[in-house]
């Protein structure tokens, strides 16, 4: 069988001549059978040839695991030809996941102790390629001895093996510290490169080693200066750059040694300036050295002028024809823009030009850097450039570009009018790509700029008449037309071109929005509410508006149907309330994170009491009737008779909020429920200006080990009281004292009768559904007297 086996060259030729995969498998299976037979027969003369063929089969992707033990036999053989193929097979067929790799530890140890350089090189290569942690611990002393061998060939491979050992077992760093200092004096570039790599690994993994090797910074500086200034033989020159691989590795080591160390940084400052100014940037090898120089300058405590030089190098990279170099420059400048903003700003025109790169990755990086460069001094110019890019940028970049422009305008807007114009242009260009809060932010901005109401409503009307496909733009325009439709018809705005608009044109435009297939349900809700508001803003007959409300009273969308039914009720039954209900909305301040409920309400009322006019007596009583209309009757709540209105009471009835800060002596809290870690507390607030109003905050906390889910709190009061339940902050009370759940109850007590409260709690806890009904009769006297 062995005699009929093919030679390696013949096997390669026959496999290449196979026309189908089936023929290839047939040839390989046949030859693998010969190889197995040869291994069983134990032919010592031809076993290395059989293993060589098996390794070729393994490289083609076919199974060759049955050759692992043969590798061990060849490694133990005294013949060099056997050892060479055996070590090659061990590197390809064995790894640390297989226990068989531990069997060659003794053979490697013996070969390392021999004086034959070729055999030592084979053993070191195998150890660095597949040596496990156990092998590294066992063989570290032998490798340490070889680091100082006379032969440069062995020393170079020993250094690389030491690097592998440090990565596998960082605890071995103490063994390799002494030889490294001697190896730094080597003139052999291969050994010096490996030594610098070894020191880098040691410094990254051991603080003691980092402190130890800071002493050799002057020596590293001298070596690098020699490479840069005097050059070296053509043997180590790459495109005219003297050994760029060694330069890059030394710069990386200097970066680690100089980080957060003033003395080391000072030592290498002059050298870094020389490297930055004397390295040829017309070749890729020179650019690699320059880039590592920039990273080193930025990572150590370098001088300010040196950092400016590093930024200028990156600026030159932006002009390079190689896209990879431009991408690296943009990424690096993006990291430096916070620490060296003024230096990066000098290259702003070049960065903006990169926006129009055909490469999507370059364009995205340029966009991120351009947005980071926007400040109060250049916001107008940069926004104009970004808006031009937004009009032609790829769809996958539009969301980031639109959101970035809006954020920049919000932070650095010089005037409110410019801010509004910027947002309108973004909404017109890429409205469907903006963030969800863009509509609310623009509405708040317009509402807070009273002097720009007429200008804004005219701009939005014109934009809406041209395009109703951009949904955020349509929503803002509908809201603005509904709020300030009277200003649209007056034609008193001097900041825009004269625009003659009739009432029928405005109504027709909003009806067009309602009927458009592109309009979302939320957009239709804006348009429907705008029509309703225009019934009080515009003079004339409202039959057309009433007809639209009647049509949408049977809409399939529940939200639109509910709005239309309520608006119809205002027209038919409560027409005398319509003007008061649809008054212009006051400015609503943007809220931050959850704050204390009572402090929040006091702040809101303080702001509203300064800005909002006091309603009349009729409007105050009308609001109570409106609650009947929208909320419907409740068996647990009956509205009290009309109260004697005062200016303070009127505001409370209109906004249903307290109108003064908390009293100096607060009402004590009351614990009303506790079970299995769930606790319910009530806190009370009585606004001084409205003695009939009581605000109760229900706070649920959970100290148990399981979350309380699906938590619902319901309340009932006697018929002489009026109760309004606000939405809770959530339906889950986290375990282990997490964020509590809160809910606000508003109770009107016109007769100042003793208050009784009935609560029903339903929730799930520890996999069980719980329902609790109880009455609270021990409320403090201060809550009703």
The residue ranges in which pLDDT falls below 50 over 5 or more consecutive positions are 590-664
Sketch the major β-sheet. Answer: 5 strands, antiparallel
Count of individual beta strands: 10
What's the multimeric state?
A: single chain
Helix content: 55-70%
Fraction of residues in β-strands: 5-15%
Q: What is the terminal-to-terminal distance?
A: 111 Å
User: Structural class, judged by helices and strands?
Assistant: alpha+beta
What is the mean predicted local confidence, pLDDT?
Answer: 83
Structural account:
With 785 residues, the chain is of the alpha+beta class. The protein is built from 35 helices and ten strands. A five-stranded antiparallel sheet has the order 3-4-5-8-7, with no helix packed on it. Strands 6-9-10 form a three-stranded antiparallel sheet, with no helix packed on it. α8 (133-146) packs antiparallel against α9 (152-168), α13 runs parallel beside α15 and α17 runs antiparallel to α18. The longest helix has 21 residues, at 21-41.
